[in-house]
Amino acid sequence: MITAFASPSTYVQGDRLLQHAARYIAPFGNHGLLIADDIVWELVGGQFYQHLTADGLKIEHIHFNGESSPEEIARIQAIGEAKDAKFVIALGGGKTNDTTKAVGDQLHVPVVIVPTLASNDSPCTRLSVIYSPNGEFLKYQFYDKNPDLVLVDSTVIAGAPVRFLVDGIADALSTNVEAQTVARARATTLLPLQTDQTAAGLALAEKCESLLFKYTGQAVSAAADHVVTPALSHIIEANILLSGVGAESSGLAAAHSFQNGLTALSGDVHKLSHGQKVAFGTLLNLVLEGATDAEFQRYLDFEADLGLPTTLADLYLDEASDEDLMKVAKLTVQSGETIHNMGFPVSARDVFSAIKATDELSRQMQRQF
């Protein structure tokens, strides 16, 4: 058995961190690319750029077009080559992070991730989710190393709309559910070379879930008021560091495959975030593995209290035909998907049945109260 554990080289989290971020970035060189979309640039990008340049770094701002597609990666890579960039910085959300990691890998330069949201666990991982230009899931792309530096400004995270923190909580909630599934199945992790879980990776997944159940209420209240508290700091760490490293070093199962499977459909379901889709996927994962009613209820109550999708109606799929749901199921079990870490064969028919059962059980349990 070969086990492996991976993490970013350095993770730094604190209030108003962007004001003195240059001290952490400067060891990589004196000039690089700063990748951000227009919204992020207007909110914090311009100020961040000024802080970096005032501290002696030469920074080229690159507009991110919004999709982590092969075409966008190639476009930014060409700019980096022309500018002889010594490092690349992602400022923004998950797709900005994924694109920047891919560009850094192609340029063979250090990658710095500066998340502006705690909405997902992409900042710390050594993989990108690659989509087509129109948003259809294509593949997971893996790299030889995790980001060199992750800088998390708690003040920036607290300043974002609270719904993004809730999205991250939903994504993080799947971490231990899927990790425990992988552990029972003795399946492999997301790391290359088919490596097995370490105790450290599983412990981080468990700690992630523990923090979520202890501090989510306080953290959401703080984020709603845009203030940083110890509880919010715990949840930021759970969403970004513990979820990212825990998932990568412990493995994924059905919850994330279901999220990918939803790309088989068009329509309002895609108004929902990654975390919102994974929320239903977490419940689906529990149904597929035969969780008890009490265990299902625990996660259902947690998600329902946060207003996360727990039924097909919440996913805007209450009128979806069986044919459409089967399309989702077939894409969920395509070759290479992490649902095959469940420890038993999972067919499209199994997923179709679990989708219907999850919806019905969620609705029944919520009608009891």
Overview of this structure, please?
- By secondary structure, the protein is an alpha/beta fold.
- It has three domains: 10-159, 3-Layer(aba) Sandwich (Rossmann fold), CATH 3.40.50; 161-251, Dehydroquinate synthase-like, alpha domain, CATH 1.20.1090.10; 253-369, Dehydroquinate synthase-like - alpha domain (Dehydroquinate synthase-like, alpha domain, Up-down Bundle), CATH 1.20.1090.
- Helices cover 52% and strands 12% of the residues.
- It is built from 13 helices and eight strands.
- The chain has helices spanning 22-25, 38-54, 70-83, 94-107, 154-159, 162-185, 199-224, 230-250, 254-261, 274-288, 293-305, 322-332, 348-367; strands at residues 10-14, 31-36, 58-63, 88-92, 111-115, 127-131, 137-142, 149-153.
- It has a six-stranded parallel beta sheet with strand order 1-8-5-4-2-3, sandwiched between helices.
- Strand 6 (127-131) and strand 7 form a beta hairpin.
- The termini are far apart.
- The model has no long low-confidence stretch (mean pLDDT 96).
Write the layout of secondary structure elements.
Elements: E1 10-14, H1 22-25, E2 31-36, H2 38-54, E3 58-63, H3 70-83, E4 88-92, H4 94-107, E5 111-115, E6 127-131, E7 137-142, E8 149-153, H5 154-159, H6 162-185, H7 199-224, H8 230-250, H9 254-261, H10 274-288, H11 293-305, H12 322-332, H13 348-367
Parallel strand pairs: 1-8, 2-3, 2-4, 4-5, 5-8
Antiparallel strand pairs: 6-7
